[in-house]
Amino acid sequence: TLMLTQRLQGMATEVESSVQLARSHAISQGQTVYLAIQQQDGAACVLTHTGERGACTCQANGAAICQGEAELLQHSRLDTSTGVRVQTNASTMAFSALRGMATPTATIRLIDSQGRALHQIVNVMGRTRTCSPKPAIAGYKAC
Predict the structure, then answer these.
(1) Alpha helices by DSSP H, the chain
(2) Of 17, 22, 5, 19, which Cα lies nearest the Cα of 110?
């Protein structure tokens, strides 16, 4: 249980870092940055990129490929064989150069094999808060 909790928290931290990277890069570089979460067999692929929406995709082998003038800023593969799976209500978020605002807002759910979860909630200002629905994980506010 302790190892599973650590994996869950590690993945939540990784997702939050990706959101912050997308937001800060959009503001500092004055361009729209996309954060995409793509589901694959046995993994979720998290891509942070510039260019057009959908310009970067994850391949079956885990590599990321971008088309056109898109630049891949970060790529991570969240392996679900660790006992943690990823769900989201928005597969792609755009972070604008103006204050790093996120469109659409999203809830990224990381759920372990015991049913415990951490939610990364991204608001319209591109900021993330982490909470835990029931059964709650100690140290996190309730959702």
Answers:
(1) 2-29
(2) 5
Phi (first) and psi of residue 4, to 5 degrees: -65, -40
The single residue listed with the structure tokens 């990277």 is 21
State both tokens at 9: 């928290």
49 touches 34 (CB < 8 A): yes
Distance between terminal CA atoms of the chain?
21
CA dihedral 59, 63, 67, 73 (to 10 degrees): 130
Per-residue pLDDT reduced to its tens digit, 105-114? 999 999 999 9
For 43-70, write each residue's pLDDT tens digit: 999 999 999 999 999 998 889 999 999 9
Is the dihedral angle over the CA atoms 123, 126, 130, 134 positive or is it negative? positive
